[in-house]
Design brief:
With 244 residues, this protein is mainly beta. The protein has one domain. The protein is 11% helix and 33% strand. It contains 1 helix and 17 strands. The chain has one helix spanning 2-27; strands at residues 30-33, 39-44, 48-49, 58-63, 67-68, 74-76, 81-90, 99-109, 116-117, 120-126, 156-157, 193-195, 200-204, 213-217, 223-224, 229-234, 239-242. The protein is globular and about 55 Å long.
């Protein structure tokens, strides 16, 4: 009887070990590199308001286009969750010259699991597609520091090395020039500044390890509705983990 029980126990242990090994093999991350200039289109999942926000508040967005390598493989699929936080928040009160929110995105979480570390700046923002009005006094001031438009830098994935120029079919074609207007849909990869919002400006200090993008307003509190369109640009190669 004892031998039978021992045999059954050992069998259960071996089965558990095999299952754990198989699970680990399936979930073992592979490295993904987002090279400088890689563009990601996204939308905010909820509204942000400098009057209510505080430092450390979580910021969530989701990608609105697949990002593919040149061999056609989807590296970051549409609908991938982007997680970040506020590094600064200041409401405008009497005597203040401006209000401000500073957003830093930290990682992407695809639906199939895993995490992809991000080092990105918000290169452009646009009103939600349903709210955009060409008469909103927008249009694309270029308050960013002197950085070129996205382009030319590849993205590779370690499993089967490949390159993907930021402006491919997986990203919107550059059909506007920096400082132009973008009335709807994903922001083209060469977009720059603010579209559809009045009185907002963007600045990024890319010298920091993981920089935050400041959104400032001299007119009133900074308010971004759910669905606000974002163009995120990778600043340099960022090794990361993916679940595939």
């Amino acid at each position: 009887m004892n031998r039978t029980r021992f045999a059954l126990s050992m069998g259960a242990v071996l089965a558990a070990a095999v299952f754990a090994a198989a699970t680990f093999a399936q979930s073992e991350p592979t490295s993904i590199i987002l090279a400088g200039g890689t563009a990601l289109n996204a939308e905010l999942n909820s509204s942000l308001d400098s009057k209510k926000a505080k430092v450390g508040d979580r910021v969530e967005a989701h990608t609105t286009l697949d990002l593919r390598s040149t061999d056609g493989r989807t590296v970051i699929p549409k609908g991938t969750k982007l997680i970040g936080h506020l590094t600064e928040a200041a409401a405008r009160s009497k005597g203040d010259s401006e209000s401000m929110l500073a957003i830093q995105f930290d990682k992407a979480i695809p639906k199939n699991g895993g995490e992809i570390a991000l080092r990105v700046e918000i290169r452009a923002i646009g009103q939600p597609q349903n709210d955009f009005s060409s008469s909103a006094g927008n249009s694309g001031n270029d308050p960013m520091t002197s950085r070129g438009a996205a382009g030319g830098s590849p993205m590779g994935a370690s499993r089967s090395p490949a390159t993907v120029p930021p402006n491919t079919a997986s990203n919107p074609s550059p059909d506007i020039t920096p400082g132009g207007s973008s009335d709807a849909g994903p922001l083209p990869a060469n977009s720059r500044g603010v579209y559809g919002f009045s009185g907002l400006q963007l600045t990024t200090d890319s010298s920091k390890p993981n920089p935050a993008t400041k959104i400032t307003s001299t007119g009133k509190n900074v308010h971004l509705d759910s669905g606000t369109r974002l163009l995120l640009i990778a600043l340099e190669e960022t090794p990361a983990a993916d679940s595939k």
